[in-house]
Amino acid sequence: MKIATFNVNGINGRMPVLLAWLQQAQPDIVCLQELKCTDESFPRQALEDAGYGALWSGQKAWNGVAILARGSQPLESRRGLPGDPKDTQSRYLEAAVAGVLVGCLYLPNGNPQPGPKFDYKLAWFERLIAHAATLVDMASPVVLAGDYNVVPSDDVADIYATRSWKDDALLQPESRAAWRRLLAQGWADAIATLHPGEPLYTFWDYMRKRWPRNAGLRIDHLLLNPSAARLLSKAGVDREVRGMEKASDHAPAWAVLKAAGRGAAAAEGRRRT
DNA sequence: ATGCCTGTCTGGGACAGA
User: Fold this and answer.
1) Using one digit for the tens of pLDDT, what is the confidence trace for A150-181?
2) What's the start-to-end Cα distance of chain A, in Å?
3) Which protein residues, judged by their CB atom, are less than 7 Å from any atom of strand B?
4) Which of A71, A72, A130, A172 sits most deeply, having the most CB atoms within 10 A of its CB?
């Protein structure tokens, strides 16, 4: 089973890219962020025609998350993080698909920092940590996938260079401390686990020729609870998607879990023949 | 400190992204 996360930066303008990637990569589960569309304008029919059932939480102009499942309908288990009823931003959606619990998240960017947006980012992170604590020890596989808006370290595996980013919310000690506390619950960073030290960036700013220069950041992550981590067999980034016409500024990141969920082994078998 | 790009909502320019 292949699970992917992709910040599309506007789903309706990104449909040609999204559909081409779905067709090529054939992910079983997809977490999408930054839909930038209302619930009414979500392209449900086009995704269904491409073979995907969908669940979405839209919002006018900004944010918005969705979960896609190839050949089935995701079963919603949660909409929004607990802990702040006044938070109306569409940033979290959770569903069960083929025996895997999937949390799709779009963590606040937090710029500029310091300031109220950074405070909101850290507060949202605390709510995520509290909710993740209730999921990490589940007997079934759990994957928390999305745009975390955190560059885990200054290492070249996570960022091309830090000079122009040192004051950015994505690199701040508070953001990284929250990230480390989340992982310390027992979550495995799929890409870092299988490709330690490799610069598998997921975001390249549109500005300053950062894509042609491969001046990227690793901010889209898939975290696996121990049950899911035991099944981890592959992980990667489909970086060619960033080079397509009318690309998002993010590329999809993905992980493959072996024999996860009912029928997955049969599906793997079919794929090999 | 600002522009650099691209998106949405609008119908020009503000705001947000990271």
Assistant:
1) 999 999 999 999 988 999 999 999 999 999 99
2) 16
3) A 7, 9-10, 12-13, 34, 36-38, 60-62, 108-109, 111-112, 117, 147, 149, 168, 170, 203, 205-209, 217, 219, 246, 249-250
4) A172
